[in-house]
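Sequence design from tokenized structure. All designs in this work follow the same two-part layout: the structure record, then the generated sequence. An example of the structure record is given first.
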């Protein structure tokens, strides 16, 4: 689900992805867009492969991936639902260090 256009968001990309059990999303990187992505797992389970290392995905987990890193996502036996958020990297971050 391409949520950015539906919501009218202009500062970052946001998509909801739902993978059926055992399926894999496309391996890709964001080097061309410089999008630093954060994945937020909503339901199911699976793995995100970052630099050859599998990171377990489960509900409530947040994972950040640098733009130049290739990343395939694989759903587990229950399938996998997650949100991907990706803004371009800026020279310096803004915001509060903590709430």
């Amino acid at each position: 689900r391409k949520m950015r256009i539906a919501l009218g968001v202009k500062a970052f990309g946001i998509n909801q992805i739902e993978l059926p059990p055992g399926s894999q999303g496309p391996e890709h990187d964001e080097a061309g867009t410089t999008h630093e992505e954060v994945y937020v797992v909503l339901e199911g389970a699976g793995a995100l492969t970052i630099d050859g290392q599998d990171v377990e995905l489960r509900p409530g987990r947040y994972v950040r991936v640098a733009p130049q890193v290739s990343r395939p996502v694989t759903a587990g036996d229950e399938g996998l639902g997650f949100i991907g958020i990706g803004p371009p990297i800026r020279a310096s971050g803004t915001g509060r260090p903590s709430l």
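The mean pLDDT is 90. We note this feature because it recurs in several other targets discussed in the main text.
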